[in-house]
Design brief:
The complex is a heterodimer of chains A (321) and B (228). With 321 residues, chain A is α+β, with helices and mostly antiparallel strands. Chain A has two domains: 2-164, no CATH class; 172-307, Cyclophilin-like (Cyclophilin, Beta Barrel), CATH 2.40.100. Chain A contains five helices and 20 strands. By secondary structure, chain B is an alpha+beta fold. Chain B has a seven-stranded mixed sheet, covered by helices on one side. In chain B, strands 1-2-4-3 form a four-stranded antiparallel sheet, covered by helices on one side. A two-stranded antiparallel ribbon of chain B has the order 8-11. Chain B is elongated, with a radius of gyration of 19 Å. Residues 1-10 of chain B have low confidence and may be disordered. Classes of the chains: A alpha+beta (321), B alpha+beta (228). At the A-B interface, strand 15, strand 18, strand 19 and helix 5 of A face strand 2, strand 3 and strand 4 of B.
């Protein structure tokens, strides 16, 4: 068990999300920064898909009620155990009664906590992820309140002392210091319906993250984008990462809890493997879209998976087959 | 594969557009909604459901989003599979279920009713009568959990979606958007217009089938009350 000691309706139990439920209108949900949760899980000896916490409201405090391993990844946050600073991106041994505090991030916006065993939330539609919009999954379908107690599944390994900081994260932190983030995007169905001025602006000028940014999607603000003529589309499925442009001309990027269908014209789709970069971009951050082809997108995905597999090999402690 | 040559070209040509590198949006080239094309999409979705290469299927209105792992199946392989299935559609059940949804028209939830009536050039009562006399069909389920896109909105009631979506529309709000009708299954942002509310729960995770309405169902809105 762990006991939550701080309020924060946007602190959520998340795993890697639901698969195969979009036909019911159920979003993927899951960690916005999926690689961060995967690595946090590997650090404490869990399967990558174990449920942990996505912390969106800081400072976040909890108390351990049993001996456990904890790791914190994602946003760069100061972390302490009973008031003593400890590093993130490592595996920490926590004793019963100890309090862990995750402070407001210096860089990035979402921190991930993994616990040995993983959070024992009920599996609904194949996942433990909280679907805030529909109010199910995770801990009672809602964010965590002070006093909530979370059961953990049995742990099987003891592996303190392990640490990792992926190079990709170091490079990302550099960019974030300048409040800039670059994501790669593939032209979507209505790309050709936008004026050439709009397409130029989309790929060459920054779009700022507005306060209307959450797990559903980010509304961005920048050079307005216009289609050559007004377009009213029949509703169609949209994948996370889809950049829609309502007639007002400001783009919206659909994310983890995005609606599964929509009707606004789509200018582009951000690569799935770049969505974590958006997940860690806070209000005011300037987003640059870099155009890539489908083939380049597939190559990027292959590299992303290879990099994660490499991290997993580094952290894997299971006996060789 | 010589016999391919003698098959007639189907009425609707398919258009494929990438939605990222692991998804393709399959669209009919029809500019307006066609119920017969939609039935072809029902059977295409049904045929793809059991294919191991497919991770998600999102049926839209005269279109289908097909998601897959691009490191396992290339986009062109998936497109060929879809093209071949489109040529040989499966038969579908012929008698649809009829579902009834009681509605409180007007009142606080109906922020756009007066504007819609004015746009259509009719009184609010006439607008409500027209909306509740029509028979709708579930074209697809999506957007939000259990949200049914309903075709069959009388053309004179249609109105394009809002230029910018509202940040929040309450669960149970009865809405129209473009030529479609629907009911909010949960509180969420929406670019559609609000005309009333209902207590019917469109999505309940505790039910064996969480979605109340499924593609192909017929739907009628019953006037429970008209609030001023």
């Amino acid at each position: 068990m762990i006991e939550v000691l701080s309020g924060g309706a946007l602190n959520l139990v998340q795993d890697l999300g639901r698969s195969g439920c979009m036909a019911m209108g159920v979003s993927r949900s899951g960690a916005m920064d999926a690689p961060a949760l995967m690595i946090a899980n590997w650090l404490v000896g869990n399967q990558e898909n174990a449920a942990g916490l996505e912390v969106n409201i800081f400072p976040f405090r909890f108390k351990a009620e049993r001996e456990l391993l904890v790791s914190c990844t994602g946003a760069h946050c100061a972390l302490s155990v009973d008031g003593h600073p400890v590093p993130s991106w490592t595996c920490l041994e926590i004793r019963p009664g100890q309090q862990v505090v995750v402070e407001r991030p210096r860089l990035g916006v979402r921190a991930y906590l993994a616990f040995s065993g993983g959070v024992d939330a009920p599996v609904q539609l194949g996942s433990r992820a909280t679907d805030l919009k529909a109010g199910f999954g995770g801990h009672e379908g809602r964010g965590l309140n002070r006093g909530d107690r979370l059961r953990l599944l049995p742990q099987c390994l003891s592996l303190p002392g392990r640490a990792i900081l992926p190079l990709e994260r170091v490079q990302y932190a550099e960019a974030m210091r300048g409040q800039q983030v670059t994501v790669r995007a593939i032209a979507a169905a209505q790309a050709d319906d936008f004026s050439s001025t709009s397409l130029d602006a989309f790929y060459s000028t920054p779009y700022e993250v507005t306060p209307q940014a959450n797990r559903v999607g980010y509304r961005l603000q920048g050079q307005p984008l216009q289609t050559i003529r007004p377009i009213e589309l029949l509703s169609h499925g949209i994948a996370p990462g889809t950049v829609q442009v309502p007639p007002a001309g400001q783009p919206i990027v659909q994310l983890a809890e995005a609606n599964t269908c929509g009707g606004y014209p789509k200018i582009a789709t951000v690569l799935d493997c770049d969505l974590w970069r958006l997940a860690q971009a806070g209000v005011g951050c300037r987003v640059h879209f870099k155009p890539v082809t489908v083939a380049e997108g597939i190559e990027a995905l292959a590299q992303h998976r290879a990099a994660l597999a490499n991290i997993h090999r580094h952290l894997d402690v299971s006996p060789p087959a | 594969m010589r016999d391919i040559d003698i098959i007639e070209t189907p009425a609707a040509e398919l258009l494929f557009s990438p939605s990222g590198c692991g998804a393709v949006l399959v669209d009919s080239s029809q500019p307006v909604f066609s119920p017969s094309v939609q039935r072809k999409f029902f059977s295409l979705a049904r045929a793809l459901e059991t294919d191991q290469q497919i991770s998600e299927l999102v049926l839209g209105v005269n279109n289908l989003l097909v998601m897959f792992d691009p490191l396992v199946s290339s986009p062109s392989t998936i497109e060929q599979l879809i093209q071949s299935l489109w040529l040989y559609p499966d038969a579908l059940p012929s008698t649809p279920r009829v579902m009834e949804i009681p509605v409180s028209y007007g009142g606080e939830a109906a922020q756009d009713l007066a504007m819609l009536a004015e746009h259509a050039g009719v009184s609010i009562d006439q607008w409500i009568e027209c909306h509740s006399n029509a028979t709708y069909e579930v074209a697809c389920v999506g957007s939000m959990p259990g949200f049914a896109y309903l075709s069959g909105l009388p053309a004179e009631l249609a109105k394009p979606r809002r230029a910018s979506p509202r940040a929040q529309l309450a669960k149970g709000t009865v809405i129209i958007g473009g030529a479609q009708a629907g009911v909010m299954p949960c509180t969420a942002p929406s670019g559609w217009h609000a005309i009333g509310r209902t207590d019917v729960d469109l999505f309940d995770i505790q039910r064996q089938q969480p979605c109340l309405l499924l593609p192909g169902d017929q739907v009628r809105f019953l006037v429970r009350e008209v609030a001023s």
